[in-house]
Amino acid sequence: MTDVSGASADVLHTLFRSEQGGHEQVVLCQDRASGLKAVIALHSTALGPGLGGTRFYPYASEEEAVADALNLSRGMSYKNALAGLDHGGGKAVIIGDPEQIKTEALLLAYGRFVASLGGRYVTACDVGTYVADMDVVARECRWTTGRSPENGGAGDSSVLTAFGVFQGMRASAQHQWGDPSLRGRRIGVAGVGKVGHHLVEHLLKDGAEVVITDVRAESVTRITDRHPEVTVAADADALIRTEGLDIYAPCALGGALDDETVPALTASIVCGAANNQLAHPGVEKDLADRRILYAPDYVVNAGGVIQVTDELHGFDFERCRAKAAKIFDTTLQIFARAKSDGVPPAAAADRIAEHRMAEAHRS
Questions:
Q1: Neighbouring residues of 154: CB distance < 8 A, sequence distance ≥ 6
Q2: Residue 2 has pLDDT above 50, yes or no
Q3: Known binder of ligand: residue 195?
Q4: Mean pLDDT computed over 313-334
Q5: What Cα–Cα distance (Å) separates residue 161 from each residue in 57, 138, 156, 234, 252?
Q6: Fewest CB within a 10 Å sphere: which of 30, 199, 293, 305?
């Protein structure tokens, strides 16, 4: 079912494009009083209620917002399946600059829309939303995770997201070089915000040489003030062209790997926290053709969703950390499957996730 009242022709076109992945339900939300305009996309509930965060972003158009919600929710289905969670994939996007329009009234209105789905969608934090925001949303919707410990939640999920990416990176090093240690490896991190700055801490502790970049100067200085040994690249383009780079970690918005960036990459491994890193189908083959090992994003960045899922059952950090540590083994399994099937790792990961969802449909 897709609720499309008032949708423009462009938005309708985006909703029903076959390559977006056959979503179960898409809801366009509008609350005139608060200024809320949002999209909630449910890709699959085969494994359980759709689970995924709320992105708050100044999209250039409604069509762009819908496309992002569709892509992100599909990614969540695959992420949750490979993480072994009893949840399908969902995602929401709120249209607008959170620095300008985010208000308590808007978040409460959003919570009412999520609640109206009756538990088919469970929301959490994403780009532009934070723990304090989820506390507000939860006042109108009990299907809200990523809340503060004071309000019965698990707090910031970016801690375990970064830990999971670190485990995926170690697995990538094991597969590529026969050693999971990152000591002496030069690693470029593009985006050192909520997740990226935690990842940098893991890398430095493991002995890596780190190069960073971010569009926000304050995010860069937060790291360099504490770790002056970290090198700063001028921008993302300069980072991917950095000589001697072993690993490239996209940790900002999606689409970082495209027809321009892949030929310019100097790294032999790509492993980062950003969602939907492949700009379009075929990029995974381009990476493989250049012998660049790609750790599928929705596999390695599953630490956060592992955390917020655990919150639904009474949060225990050490239990979550142990589950997130298994991302190391899952990543190695995907590389092994890719080798045996003769396909890129992204295709191998998709096959494993699709098999689990198909089995759930048959049971």
A1: 145, 146, 147, 307, 308, 310, 311, 315, 317, 320
A2: no
A3: yes
A4: 94
A5: 20, 22, 10, 26, 13
A6: 30
Which CATH superfamily hosts domain 2-75+87-151? Leucine Dehydrogenase, chain A, domain 1 (3.40.50.10860)
CB-CB contact of 134 with 110 (8 Å): no
Which stretch of DSSP H or E encloses residue 170?
Answer: helix 158-177
Report, in this order, helix, strand and coil percent for the chain, each rounded to 5.
45, 15, 35
For 214-231, the DSSP string reads -S-HHHHHHHHHH-TTSE
Q: Residue 20: its pLDDT value, please?
A: 53
- Consult the annotation and say whether 93 binds a ligand: no
| Confidence bin at 340 (pLDDT 50/70/90) | very high
Please state the domain extents for the chain.
Answer: 2-75+87-151, 158-302+329-355
The residues assigned a catalytic role are 91
- Please check if 285 is assigned to a binding site: no
Domain 158-302+329-355 has CATH 3.40.50.720: yes
> Which pair of tokens denotes residue 290?
């250049």
15: nearest Cα among 63, 87, 86: 63
